[in-house]
Specification:
Helices cover 18% and strands 36% of the residues. The protein is an alpha+beta fold and 135 residues long. The chain has one domain: Nucleoside Triphosphate Pyrophosphohydrolase (Alpha-Beta Complex). A hairpin with a 7-residue loop joins strand 6 (67-73) and strand 7.
Length: 135
């Protein structure tokens, strides 16, 4: 049985919009959009991982809020993963793109039109229809 990889994703909110990040052309799922975050390291809590990933990817010191959603997914030929979404109500520092093709602030009502990774789509749909609230 394969080990399930734990992954976090942060939903950074600003004026009724959320930050989404586009994957680089050379990696897995090029050009797809996602929420910032990444894999949990051994011995690391989900919240600690979330803070570390946001520091590495966006150079911010994030306040990790509540868990919004948890799902599992598996891409062909890859290990299955459990993805936990957190609200990021505040952060310190200046948002700096360290590893994405692009960053974009998108209103919740427009999220359905963004070409998200398959693993994010269930959460995005729940957010767009109001089943998940950020406040």
């Amino acid at each position: 049985m394969e080990c399930i990889v734990e992954v976090t994703a942060g939903v950074i909110v600003r004026n009724q919009t959320v930050l989404v990040c586009q994957r680089l052309p050379g990696g897995h799922h090029p050009g797809k959009w996602e929420f910032p975050g990444g894999k949990v390291e051994p011995g690391e809590s989900l919240e600690t991982c979330m803070r570390r990933e946001l520091a590495e990817e966006l150079e911010v010191d994030a306040i990790v809020g509540r868990r919004l959603w948890r799902t599992q997914h598996q891409y062909p030929g890859r290990a299955p993963f459990a993805l936990t979404f957190f609200t990021i109500p505040r952060f310190g520092g200046t948002l700096t793109n360290k590893c994405f093709a692009a960053l974009r602030w998108v209103s919740i009502s427009d999220l359905a039109g963004v070409d998200f990774l398959d693993g994010d789509r269930e959460f995005v749909a729940a957010l767009a229809c109001g089943d998940v609230r950020l406040d």
